Amino acid sequence: MIGLKRTAVAVMMVVMAGGVVSCTSTSQVPLSIRNAQERDVADTTRMANGADDRDADTPLTEEEREQEEARLEELRLARERAAEEIRRREQELEENYFERTNKSLSLYVKAQTAYFSGDFDTALELVREGIAVNDSPDLYALKGSIYYSMGQGEQAGRYWRRAVDADGEVVCDMYPGLRSWYEERNR
């Protein structure tokens, strides 16, 4: 591949242990899990504070046992639904990543071909499209080289800086003007 770096893929991760749910995502924990978790916390708090006057040795009534079993089943089902949603979203993220990467790479190759053919306007348009699909340091480096070849050094420097800040390994002889700009910048 032409140096395109993988973009970070945000993956929703839900960790469930002992009725506690921790979620790292912009998505919210499903309501059924939150409700079950809140009930568990309230029950634990009530018991810890002595609010439950039941003796530890006092058995549950049949009705209480049925309620507890129903609550535990509700929690189990909520966990299963959450796990299925996570699997679905992970698959969707993976498919979207590959689709964006392929489109971005295709636009990069077309832009590079236009650039080396001297068609700078077409190359710039293709790079803009590629950046809109996948924000890649290689696309910014190419954009800088296009501006450099058009005699617009200030614009070139702006895009090269962005490329190098994102990935220092982008500095190579494949992008005309980039290496000399980088070496001068870092003297």
Give an account of the 3D structure.
With about 190 residues, this protein is mostly helical. Helix content is about 65%, strand content about 5%. The protein has 6 helices and 2 strands. The protein has helices at about 30-50, 60-115, 120-135, 135-150, 155-165, 180-185; strands spanning about 15, 20-25. A two-stranded antiparallel sheet has the order 1-2. α1 (about 30-50) crosses α2 (about 60-115), α2 (about 60-115) runs parallel beside α4 (about 135-150) and α3 runs antiparallel to α4 (about 135-150). It is elongated and about 85 Å long. It starts with 12 loop residues before the first strand and ends with a helix. The model is unreliable at about 1-30 (pLDDT under 50).
From the structure above, extract its key features.
single chain; 187 residues; mainly alpha; two-stranded antiparallel ribbon; 2 strands; elongated; disordered N terminus
What's the layout of helices and strands?
Elements (H helix, E strand, L loop, with lengths): L12 E5 L2 E5 L6 H18 L13 H55 L3 H14 L3 H13 L3 H14 L11 H8 L2
Quick take:
The protein is 65% helix and 5% strand. It contains 6 helices and 2 strands; from the N terminus they run ββαααααα.
- CA-based shape: elongated
Assembly state of the chains shown: single chain
Mean pLDDT, nearest integer?
77
Strand order of the largest sheet: 1-2
Number of helices: 6
* Largest sheet data: 2 strands, antiparallel
Radius of gyration from the alpha-carbon trace, in angstroms: 28 Å
Instruction: Please report the distance between the alpha carbons of the first and last residues.
Output: 31 Å
- Strand percentage lies at 5-15%
Total beta strands? 2
State the low-pLDDT regions, or none: 1-30
Structural classification: mainly alpha
Helix content: 55-70%
